[in-house]
Structures are given as structure tokens and as C-alpha cells.
Specification:
The chain is of the alpha/beta class. The protein has helices at 2-8, 10-13, 21-26, 46-56, 68-74, 82-85, 95-102, 134-167, 193-196, 229-246, 267-279; strands at 111-120, 123-133, 173-180, 184-185, 201-211, 214-222, 252-257, 283-288.
Length: 294
């Protein structure tokens, strides 16, 4: 914020004053939260975030200044319409032309830079991307935005489907929404040095269970750190046992999870669906959330 102030506002508001960073921080209004105290958003979808970061590069060049959200809404007449989401709508299928109409006429050759999440040496990092003009940026943005529209449509439709499933749940049915949480690191209030540098971790399997008009929350804590198809089967067995205790006439369970191939979306779990009546005493139906939105 201080560097932004120096580059854009200081010369205009305080041309003859020297304002050091300590003074700038001391004058921070009470309602402005410092970066270190701001809420951290984690586990965001990389597909959505990369498109939003690219869209932010257009904002300074728009005729009518607007937010990233408003700008992206102008590029699609209805993001909840299937024809719009697959690029078949006649009104909004030509994304480059729509963007051109929103930009300043003489901004096509302006250099732009933006940030993007990319995988570098097995880790994802947010990197700066530069060396593009605004016209080149439009061509680069168009395929990513087209894919984003379908991605957004799918995850909204899935949320609606889940809500409808919960509202119309039968007397002999249950819904399980499950996922692994980040491994929990155990700590003691008083620790020796060796213990401090050698923490023990436990796996957390989180579950939301819907039966009738009631819902229940569970967390299975386990010393088994392997989060795989084998542990999913064991945890699911325990949750279905609890569900059958809560509803003795239970015969069908609908499971919702993300599409992690190592845990849920694999041939072994599909094989378990066939044997669910023998193993669990109920029939199973498995639904997967959209990529990045589990």
C-alpha cells in the first residue's frame, strides 16, 4: 500500500512532504485491516482464479471502470444458460469483439501484465506474466474464459442438484458429503526439543450426514496417515453404520465427494458400488463435484 501511495497519490496530495513508511502505517485508519490480519482465502479453484487474474489486467483500460466480477458478467449474457456456457449463444459467443467494445479505442497496443498460478517443480506458485499487448491479451484470454464459462455452469448446476437432492430426500435414503481435511499436527503444551521438531500427524475424515430433515456432522480422527481408497472404504463403513443406527429403514445412500483419483474417483471405488449391498447392507450412489469445487 505504501509503494502504491508513493507512485500514484503522494505527488498529487502531498508534493512537498516526506512521508516515511513508519508514518504512513501510523496514520492507517482503524477500519483498514493490515495485510497480515486480513482473512486468507485458501483452497480456491485454479481454473477460476487464473481467469479472474487475467481479467483484472483489462480493468485499467475499460471505458467504464468496473470490478472484475462486473467485467466478466458483461462477457456473457447469462452464465447460468447452457447455450451461453458452451459458446453457442449468438449474442455472447464472440468474446474478443465484446471485450473490444468495452475497452478504450487506443489501448490495443498498450503493454499489460498479469499474475497466474503455474506449477513449478511440483509446487504451484503465482508468477508475473508480461510481454503482451492488450490485443494479444484478448486472444490469450478468450479460450480460457470460454472454458471457464462451462466450468462455472457445471459447478452451479451441481450445487443446485445437491440442494434439490437434500430437499427431496426419501424416508429410506441418506446423503453423505465427505472429504479428507488437512492432516492435523498434534502438540503438547510442554514439549521437549526433540518432540518440537518431530510432530505426529493424524488424518481427519470430515462428513456431513443428511437423514430426513436432520443433518449431522462427524469427524473421524485416525493414526493412519494414508489417505487412499482403502481408508475411504473403512471410514465409509463406519459412517453408514452410524446412519443405519439413526435410520433403521435405510436402504439407499447417496455419497458426494470431490474427484480425487487417489481417494474417491477410481475403478476400485466403482467396484465397491457393486458390492455395497453385501458389504454395507445398502445400495450406494456416488456423485462427484466439479474440478476445484469439492
Amino acid at each position: 500500500a505504501w509503494w502504491l501511495f508513493l507512485s500514484s497519490l503522494k505527488n498529487e496530495l502531498f508534493p512537498t512532504h516526506k512521508i516515511k513508511i513508519s508514518k504512513f502505517k501510523s496514520l492507517r485508519p482503524a477500519h483498514v485491516i493490515s495485510y497480515s490480519h486480513a482473512k486468507q482465502d485458501t483452497c480456491l479453484c485454479s481454473h477460476c482464479e487464473n481467469v479472474k487474474l487475467m481479467a483484472a489486467a483489462f480493468i485499467p483500460h475499460l471505458l467504464d471502470k468496473s470490478s472484475v466480477f462486473d467485467f466478466m458478467n458483461k462477457l456473457s449474457c447469462d452464465k447460468l444458460n447452457y447455450q451461453c456456457s458452451i459458446g453457442k449463444c449468438q449474442k455472447c459467443r464472440d468474446v474478443p469483439s465484446t471485450i473490444d467494445s468495452l475497452l478504450n479505442p487506443d489501448s490495443g497496443e498498450n503493454p499489460v501484465k498479469f499474475m497466474r498460478w503455474e506449477k513449478i517443480d511440483f509446487f504451484y506458485e503465482r508468477v508475473n506474466v508480461s510481454g503482451h499487448t492488450l490485443d494479444e491479451m484478448i486472444l490469450k484470454f478468450e479460450p480460457d474464459f470460454s472454458a471457464y464459462k462451462l466450468h462455472y455452469f457445471i459447478q452451479i448446476e451441481q450445487k443446485s442438484f445437491l440442494k434439490e437432492d437434500i430437499d427431496t430426500l426419501g424416508d429410506n435414503e441418506a446423503i453423505i458429503i465427505c472429504d479428507f481435511a488437512e492432516r492435523f499436527t498434534t502438540r503438547a503444551r510442554r514439549e521437549i526439543q526433540s518432540s518440537y521438531f518431530g510432530k505426529k500427524q493424524i488424518s481427519l475424515f470430515t462428513v456431513k450426514l443428511y437423514i430426513g430433515s436432520n443433518d449431522y456432522s462427524y469427524v473421524i480422527a485416525s493414526d493412519e496417515k494414508n489417505q487412499s481408497k482403502f481408508t475411504v472404504y473403512a471410514y465409509l463403513d463406519r459412517i453408514i453404520e452410524i446412519a443405519k443406527d439413526l435410520n433403521p429403514i435405510l436402504t439407499h445412500v447417496k455419497v458426494y465427494s470431490d474427484g480425487c483419483a487417489g481417494q474417491f474417483k477410481n475403478r476400485f471405488m466403482m467396484f465397491n458400488l457393486l458390492h455395497a449391498p453385501n458389504d454395507f447392507g445398502v445400495t450406494l450412489e456416488w456423485n462427484f463435484f466439479g474440478t476445484g469445487h469439492g
